[in-house]
């Protein structure tokens, strides 16, 4: 796009401010293009959701001689690896994706993530051995890690301040939409047809996102001011004059960040940073220790084991639909009610619902005669669980992470917290089947429920409220200045 074309965006309302020899023209512009880019980039979140939800409809198919595409039925140990390798791939990915995003850009790194998904779905489409499935799941994990690492950078750098919250909240909503997508299709089609349906998502993402711009901040960091200007004009729907002030702000922020880039030691030298790390690592840890990935990955198997009259496929779809509705509610209430009250409600609700789920499996274990009248209890318990999780402990630990650290150590702190998330995710998915077999399903759910009770206590005693505070005010409170 040349300068003549850039000036085609005529202002709706303007005023001019003379400063030395420079003229800054303030324009209304249009948010439509940044919303378009934000929605299209979140097709990558839908890709993530399909990978996270895939095992729920696929495990029963692979475990049945009638529907499995594999030469042999996966053992319990192999099934655990099929589920948990996504977390292992996601753990490794940030250490590749972060430097790559700085090297080739946010846009092309995200496009690269779709390659992992496309190859993985092709491998699953042609799979005849467990090893091939394991390789595919590991590649999906790499794709998940790439998206989770770089997509937040992309959104944060293309969105203007007034729309950053709305665009940032799309990630959780689109992830659970991807989960609902495989929950809804998987039980009713063949194993191969499910892979085709999943393959369509990364292809659609690649085709559409290819035409979206790179972020202005990346171009500034690379010294390519003309490309930054072009990108910003496209995203804001303004002329060159209309984006000069914002371009100046971005340039100052990027240059300051590059000059003051922090180290790992800088993170631990400051007491406020250490406190922030404890809060964020604790919230992310309890997010995983709630057992959410077990429920997402094994929903259909869990409902099959309850023996209720409602079919496992329909029960799983209901849970997926509730996830989407609950995730859509979070952006509407979080800035009104605050982070801490929502997190406390979420932890308490998860604790009670998991305890109730454990009670149902205990009654089933002892063959209680009252079990017949409680067929509704498992689906209601899990609906309550995913509702309070998706409103609170699902999105808010990541939101708090974005607020707690100064810019110079934010990327280091984010990598540590994200790694903690995926390490725990891997361990829980890897050993859940063995724990469930050894202790029984009732104790599995009770243990997760007890940990949610601990999460409530941790949130009440340790987590600080950030509602209405500027980033500097948050730093002052963490460092005991107010």
TrEMBL record:
<dbReference type="GO" id="GO:0005886">
    <property type="term" value="C:plasma membrane"/>
</dbReference>
<keyword id="KW-0812">Transmembrane</keyword>
<feature type="transmembrane region" description="Helical">
    <location>
        <begin position="134"/>
        <end position="155"/>
    </location>
</feature>
<dbReference type="InterPro" id="IPR050549">
    <property type="entry name" value="MFS_Trehalose_Transporter"/>
</dbReference>
<dbReference type="InterPro" id="IPR005828">
    <property type="entry name" value="MFS_sugar_transport-like"/>
</dbReference>
<keyword id="KW-1003">Cell membrane</keyword>
<feature type="transmembrane region" description="Helical">
    <location>
        <begin position="310"/>
        <end position="334"/>
    </location>
</feature>
<feature type="transmembrane region" description="Helical">
    <location>
        <begin position="167"/>
        <end position="186"/>
    </location>
</feature>
<dbReference type="GO" id="GO:0051119">
    <property type="term" value="F:sugar transmembrane transporter activity"/>
</dbReference>
<keyword id="KW-0813">Transport</keyword>
<dbReference type="InterPro" id="IPR005829">
    <property type="entry name" value="Sugar_transporter_CS"/>
</dbReference>
<keyword id="KW-1133">Transmembrane helix</keyword>
<feature type="domain" description="Major facilitator superfamily (MFS) profile">
    <location>
        <begin position="37"/>
        <end position="467"/>
    </location>
</feature>
<feature type="transmembrane region" description="Helical">
    <location>
        <begin position="412"/>
        <end position="433"/>
    </location>
</feature>
<feature type="transmembrane region" description="Helical">
    <location>
        <begin position="375"/>
        <end position="400"/>
    </location>
</feature>
<comment type="similarity">
    <text>Belongs to the major facilitator superfamily. Sugar transporter (TC 2.A.1.1) family. Trehalose transporter subfamily.</text>
</comment>
<protein>
    <recommendedName>
        <fullName>Facilitated trehalose transporter Tret1</fullName>
    </recommendedName>
</protein>
<feature type="transmembrane region" description="Helical">
    <location>
        <begin position="276"/>
        <end position="298"/>
    </location>
</feature>
<feature type="transmembrane region" description="Helical">
    <location>
        <begin position="35"/>
        <end position="54"/>
    </location>
</feature>
<feature type="transmembrane region" description="Helical">
    <location>
        <begin position="81"/>
        <end position="101"/>
    </location>
</feature>
<keyword id="KW-0325">Glycoprotein</keyword>
<dbReference type="InterPro" id="IPR036259">
    <property type="entry name" value="MFS_trans_sf"/>
</dbReference>
<feature type="transmembrane region" description="Helical">
    <location>
        <begin position="341"/>
        <end position="363"/>
    </location>
</feature>
<comment type="function">
    <text>High-capacity facilitative transporter for trehalose. Does not transport maltose, sucrose or lactose. Mediates the bidirectional transfer of trehalose. Responsible for the transport of trehalose synthesized in the fat body and the incorporation of trehalose into other tissues that require a carbon source, thereby regulating trehalose levels in the hemolymph.</text>
</comment>
<feature type="transmembrane region" description="Helical">
    <location>
        <begin position="445"/>
        <end position="464"/>
    </location>
</feature>
<dbReference type="InterPro" id="IPR020846">
    <property type="entry name" value="MFS_dom"/>
</dbReference>
<dbReference type="InterPro" id="IPR044775">
    <property type="entry name" value="MFS_ERD6/Tret1-like"/>
</dbReference>
<feature type="transmembrane region" description="Helical">
    <location>
        <begin position="108"/>
        <end position="128"/>
    </location>
</feature>
<keyword id="KW-0472">Membrane</keyword>
<keyword id="KW-0762">Sugar transport</keyword>
<dbReference type="GO" id="GO:0015574">
    <property type="term" value="F:trehalose transmembrane transporter activity"/>
</dbReference>
<dbReference type="InterPro" id="IPR003663">
    <property type="entry name" value="Sugar/inositol_transpt"/>
</dbReference>
<feature type="transmembrane region" description="Helical">
    <location>
        <begin position="192"/>
        <end position="212"/>
    </location>
</feature>
<dbReference type="Pfam" id="PF00083">
    <property type="entry name" value="Sugar_tr"/>
</dbReference>
């Amino acid at each position: 796009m040349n300068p003549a074309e850039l000036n085609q965006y005529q202002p709706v309302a303007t005023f001019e401010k003379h400063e030395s020899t420079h003229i800054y023209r303030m324009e209304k512009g249009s948010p439509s293009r940044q919303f378009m880019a934000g929605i299209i980039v979140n097709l990558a979140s839908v890709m993530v959701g399909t990978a996270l939800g895939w095992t729920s409809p696929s495990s029963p198919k692979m475990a049945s001689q009638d529907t499995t595409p594999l030469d042999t039925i996966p053992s319990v140990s192999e099934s655990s690896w099929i589920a948990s390798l996504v977390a292992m791939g996601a753990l490794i990915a940030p250490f590749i994706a972060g430097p790559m995003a700085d090297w080739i850009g946010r846009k092309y790194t995200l496009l690269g993530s779709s390659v992992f998904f496309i190859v993985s779905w092709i491998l699953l489409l042609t799979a005849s051995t467990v090893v091939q499935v394991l390789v595919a799941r590991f590649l999906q994990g790499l794709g998940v890690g790439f998206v989770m690492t770089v997509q937040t950078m992309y959104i944060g750098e293309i969105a203007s301040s007034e729309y950053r919250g709305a665009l940032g909240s799309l990630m959780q909503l689109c992830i659970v939409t991807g989960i609902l997508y495989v929950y809804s299709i998987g039980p009713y089609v063949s194993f191969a047809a499910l892979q085709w349906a999943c393959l369509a998502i990364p292809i659609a993402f690649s085709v559409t996102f290819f035409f979206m711009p790179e972020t202005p901040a990346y171009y500034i960091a690379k010294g390519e001011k003309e490309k930054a200007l072009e990108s910003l004009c496209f995203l804001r729907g303004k002329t060159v004059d209309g984006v000069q002030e914002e371009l100046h702000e971005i340039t100052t922020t990027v240059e300051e960040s590059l000059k003051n880039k922090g180290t790992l030691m800088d993170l631990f030298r400051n007491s406020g940073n250490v406190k922030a790390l404890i809060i964020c690592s604790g919230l992310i840890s309890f997010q995983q220790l709630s057992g959410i990935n077990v429920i997402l990955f094994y929903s259909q198997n869990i409902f099959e084991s309850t023996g209720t009259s409602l079919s496992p496929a329909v029960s799983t779809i209901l849970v997926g639909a509730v996830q989407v509705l609950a995730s859509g509610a979070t952006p509407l209430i979080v800035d009104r009610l605050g982070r801490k009250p929502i997190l406390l409600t979420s932890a308490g609700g998860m604790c009670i619902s998991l305890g109730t789920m454990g009670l149902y499996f205990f009654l089933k274990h002892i063959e209680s005669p009252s079990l017949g009248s409680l067929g509704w209890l498992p689906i209601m318990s899990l609906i309550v669980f995913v509702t309070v999780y998706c409103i609170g402990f699902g999105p808010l630990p990541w939101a708090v992470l974005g607020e707690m650290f100064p810019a110079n150590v934010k990327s280091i702190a984010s990598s540590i917290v994200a790694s903690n998330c995926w390490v725990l995710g891997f361990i829980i998915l890897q050993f859940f089947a063995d724990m469930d077999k050894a202790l029984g399903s009732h104790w599995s759910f009770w243990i997760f429920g007890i940990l949610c009770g601990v999460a409530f206590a941790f949130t009440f005693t340790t987590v600080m409220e950030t509602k209405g505070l500027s980033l500097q005010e948050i730093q002052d409170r963490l460092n005991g200045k107010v």
